[in-house]
Amino acid sequence: MSTHEELRADLAFLKDLAENGGQAQWAGGAAFLAGGVLYGAQCLVQGAQAAGWIVLPPVVLLCFVLGITVAFLVILTIVIIKGRKHRTTGVANRAVQATMSSIGLANLALLAIFGSAAIPRQSIVIWELYPAALFALLGAAWYVVFMLRRRWWTAAVSAGWLISAVALGVLAGTLTYALVAGLALILLMGLPGGYMMHLAKKS
What we know:
By secondary structure, this protein is mainly α. The protein is 88% helix and 0% strand.
């Protein structure tokens, strides 16, 4: 590709980002922020409970976990409804969206794979390897984003997910597992989500 063609491609990408990508980025960022903070907090509370730092009655803990899920679904529904007004265009934007959607489909397969192995064996360790595999997929997805957008902060997020995936594999079955998972969700999903919303407002 010639320099002139590269310049035209860059200008087309910037125009697309300004007209469409900003809204799509805001919606994705809002979903990441909500998911990272809510589920990160859930993991931290469950980790603190497992470590004996706090003691919650089973009913209270169940209501807390259900409340986290309900809150996330409500926020996600609002984001999806709001995002329907803005179609994502441009090759790079569509590729990012397709990558994240693929992770969602792979997540369902992972859930079935690890669930079918963990439930008959009643193994919590097998269940805890499921998030580790999902974290690795998220690391791969963010690496795709880095290759498309060439933003170094996305490479850092990718590396963080991959490192966290290995850490969860090592810590499976230990008391610190949930605490590490919670911190990873907040730092690698919630924080980037908030930054994506910030970038969307600027664009």
